[in-house]
Amino acid sequence: MNYIAGVLLLLIGQSGYAGSPLECVEAALDVAGTSPSSVVYDIGSGDGRVVVFAAKKYKCRTVGIEFDKNLAELSKETARRNKVSIEIRCEDAFKSDLSKATVIYLYHQAEFLKKLKPQLKTGVIVVCLDCPLPWLNEKPVRVIKVDEHEHSIYRYMIK
Question: Rounded to whole angstroms, what are the CA distances from 15 to 10, 12, 38, 75?
Answer without folding.
Answer: 12, 9, 31, 15
